[in-house]
Amino acid sequence: MKRIMVTGALGQIGSELIATLRGRYGRDQVVGTDIRMPIGSDPRATGPFELLDVLDPNHLTRVMQIYDIGTIYHLAAILSAVGESQPNQAWRINVNGLYNVLEAARYYRCQVFFPSSIGVFGPTTPRDYTPQDTVQRPETMYGVTKLTGELLCDYYHRRFDIDTRGLRFPGLISYKTDPGGGTTDYAVEIFYAAVRHSRYTCYLRPDTSLDMMYMPDAIRAMIELMQADPARLRHRNAFNLAAMAFTPEQLAAAIRRRIADFEISYRVDPARQTIADSWPNCMDDSAARAEWGWRPEYDLERMVDDMLEHVAERADEPHDSTSRARRGS
Q1: Of these residues, 25, 67, 99, 142, which one is catalytic?
Q2: Residue 324: its pLDDT value, please?
């Protein structure tokens, strides 16, 4: 069996994906890569791991050759809020990095997973039940790079017969890693604030509805898509993916049902609010359901229960809600 490689393996998605893949396929079958190395007893260091910058194509292909890579989960990226403050860096990492991965995959005949986002849509896209195939005119650099990535992956599939597949992720919620500079980070930060202080100040308006997903569903969706019968996949790059949609006020109300004295206030960040306002309220994921059997397992209530339980266990650990995504994380 050829090995699996994960770029950005120390990031929010990568951290959980690599653990799941190693549990399923074996520790030595999954190679983690990032621009920094896991430290000490970090569980991500329990298998093969390489220091790798996806902007270095020679090193990328060398790692693939050494480990006989057959599948790449390419997660190294700059996220939405950071992308607006560093547009040049976002283009270099999100587009040039993907190009290097696709070229390497073409040479070694690898399968490639690319995570897209609701950020590929813009203010002219239908906001409710956004169709799989619709207007895509993003107004953020993050959205532009993700849309470019979708088109690049489609091109490499058509032109070079590379097995590229992708998902348009909504906001992702996880207790295992700190937020990485995304517009939907509030939906993680709020749980730590609720457990530690019983109050939270949100940077989005209370009525801002966005699609969200709990990380276990996201990880499962990635693996299920990569295992799907290619003959069934009419869409490849990338499938709309949905699980739940809510506003900050609705999330706060769900937390308040469990922490009675929890309070939320609002101090709107115009930059992140503008990004959120350009994204869909909710997506139509019927193509994913029909073509490879997608079904979410977590709704709002089940997600809140699980998040509060695990965040309470981590309450005394350091938590940096101001952390920002960087190359490979």
Answers
A1: 142
A2: 35
Does the annotation count 142 as an active-site position? Answer: yes
Q: Give yes or no for residue 111 having a pLDDT over 90.
A: yes
| pLDDT level of residue 322 (50, 70, 90 thresholds) | very low
pLDDT confidence bin for 327, thresholds 50/70/90: very low
For 210-233, what is each residue's pLDDT tens digit? 999 999 999 999 999 999 999 999
Q: Domain of residue 254: give its range.
A: 172-212+243-313
Q: What one-character DSSP code corresponds to residue 96?
A: I
Give domain status of residue 327, yes or no. Answer: no
DSSP element (H, E) containing 4: strand 3-7
Task: Say yes or no: 137 and 272 in one domain.
Answer: no
Cα maximum dimension of the chain? 58
Predicted model pTM: 0.91
Which residues make Cβ contacts (< 8 Å) with residue 121, sequence separation at least 6?
Answer: 130, 134, 135, 136, 137, 138, 143, 278, 279, 280
E strand map for the chain: 3-7, 30-34, 49-51, 69-74, 111-117, 164-169, 171-173, 199-202, 210-214, 239-240, 244-246, 263-266
pLDDT (tens digit, 9 = 90+) per residue, 273-319? 998 998 998 999 999 999 999 999 999 999 999 999 999 988 766 54
What share of residues in the chain are helix, strand, coil (percent, to 5)? Answer: 45, 15, 40
> Which of 73, 74, 62, 67 has its CA nearest to residue 24?
73
Cα first-last separation, the chain? 27
Q: pLDDT-based confidence at 118, cuts 50/70/90?
A: very high
- Decide if 39 is inside a domain: yes
Beta bridge partners of 111: 71
Strand partners, 114: 166
Do 26 and 95 lie in one domain? The reply is yes
Sequence-distant (6+) residues with CB within 8 A of 128 are 280, 281, 282
Q: How many CB atoms lie within 10 A of CB 87?
A: 16
Determine which helix (DSSP H) or strand (DSSP E) holds 204, and give its type and residue range. none
Q: Which of 93, 104, 94, 19 is nearest to 61 (CA)?
A: 104
